[in-house]
From TrEMBL:
Ranges for region Disordered: 28-59, 108-144
Sorted UniProt keywords: Signal
PROSITE patterns, sorted: PROKAR_LIPOPROTEIN
Biased composition (Basic and acidic residues): 108-121
Protein's UniProt name: Secreted protein
Keyword Repeat found: no
Length: 397
């Protein structure tokens, strides 16, 4: 079906690209070398800076709680993460555990991770009862310029272990309103941290900003160093929040949770002491005004598509004017743009320029089997409450 959207202008596209590129140097710091229900489900896990089990980097006060869930710290460190007991798969917010395992995410393990795909079924797509705008024309994803730390510094990859194996999504460094210039927050999709209805929290969640900074090919990465793959290091999620809407309604195809498919991570470095924002030198504000698709103007989606014909090694982007997309008249309307990016781009930020500043306005959630478009949630009051809870409660830790 042909799109009824007006063609985007080259000027608008250039403005978005230029504004995002400028965020790479705006901060000047980096180098390449259970609260209210509306705030969603929050999960906590202290990790890392000594005072506990040195082998796994877990503070002493968490060892007993891990044991309550049948997690032996030493066994986890020595490979226990490989075998999951579904009966002990943790779903309550307070039960999120993500102990640092230094050296777990080696380059070869990252490159073998599979995409966390949410492919919409034809049945789901036809359930909107006329609320959705006509399907957009496909927009061919274009490769981001390298090095990524100069052109799209806030963007990176999210790795995690699920019962199905090692998986990958995309994410974006965002500002922390209560800790200016020192943010440890990452925006991604809910399905990149939690399985949704009937499932639980994923494990070994790590964010890698500017992954494969020089955009090297698979052959060139055969003997890649850790620095080439992860120029800013690995950042472990010690706190995570996603929406109750995703936890209660999310499914393998997005389901009723797709409209609430967003999450915020609080991360800390596997090694080092500076904040994520200081290290990367960039972070974006989040736009919680939830403009209508007609009012939003040009949007761009960034991410690391991993399903064919892509392989997850390089960053891509799509620019388009969004239309409305709805899975049901009783669910919030989502944004939809034409884009050929595939699974692996999930969680990647959608950006728009407001008063000359690039802001995150959504994230990739779902798409069709033929990979011609992407849909992402509108970020309104519920998303803002989740973000503010993370910033206020966990941001300074």
């Amino acid at each position: 079906m042909r799109s009824t959207h007006q063609p985007r202008t080259a000027l608008a596209a250039s403005a978005l690209l230029a504004a995002l590129a400028l965020t790479a140097t705006a901060c000047g710091g980096g180098s390449a070398d259970e609260t209210a229900d509306r705030a969603g489900a929050s999960a906590s896990q202290g990790a890392g800076d000594g005072g506990g089990d040195d082998k796994a980097g877990i503070p002493a006060d968490l060892t007993d709680r891990l044991a309550e869930h049948g997690i032996d710290v030493d066994a986890w460190k020595d490979g226990g993460w490989r075998d999951w007991d579904r009966d002990k798969w943790l779903s309550e917010a307070k039960d999120f555990v993500n102990p640092v395992i230094e050296g777990l995410w080696k380059p070869e393990r990252m490159t073998s991770a599979q995409e966390a795909d949410k492919t919409l079924s034809t049945k789901d797509a036809s359930a909107d009862q006329g609320v959705s705008d006509p399907e957009p024309a496909p927009v061919e994803a274009t490769a981001e310029q390298t090095p990524y730390h100069r052109n799209a510094a806030p963007v990176g990859k999210v790795f995690f272990d699920s019962p199905e194996g090692s998986m990958v999504c995309s994410g974006t460094v965002i500002k922390d309103v209560n800790h200016p210039g020192r943010s440890h927050l990452v925006w991604t999709a809910g399905h990149c941290v939690h399985a949704g209805q009937g499932g639980g929290w994923y494990r070994n969640i790590v964010f890698v900003p500017a992954y494969n900074d020089l955009g090297k090919s698979e052959a060139e990465l055969g003997d890649a160093t850790t620095t080439e793959i992860a120029p800013y290091g690995n950042w472990w999620a010690d706190w995570a929040s996603t929406s109750n809407g995703w936890i209660e309604g999310g499914s393998a195809t997005g389901g009723a949770g797709a409209a609430y498919d967003y999450a915020v991570l609080h991360v800390r470095p596997e090694q080092g002491a500076k904040s994520l924002e200081e290290t990367v030198g960039a972070a974006l504000d989040v736009d919680f005004s939830a403009p209508s698709a007609a009012e939003a103007g040009e949007m761009g989606a960034w991410g690391y598509p991993a399903a064919a014909p892509y392989n997850g090694l390089k960053m891509f982007k799509c620019l388009d004017r969004p239309g409305r997309f709805s899975l049901s008249p009783v669910l919030p309307t989502m944004y939809r743009i034409g884009c050929t990016m595939t699974g692996g781009s999930s969680g990647g930020g959608w950006f728009r320029v407001v008063d000359g500043e690039t802001r995150l306005v959504s994230n990739t959630s779902i798409g069709p089997a033929d990979s011609t478009w992407l849909a992402g949630p509108q970020l309104g009051q519920d998303a803002q409450a989740l973000y503010e809870n993370m910033s206020t409660t966990y941001g300074g830790r």
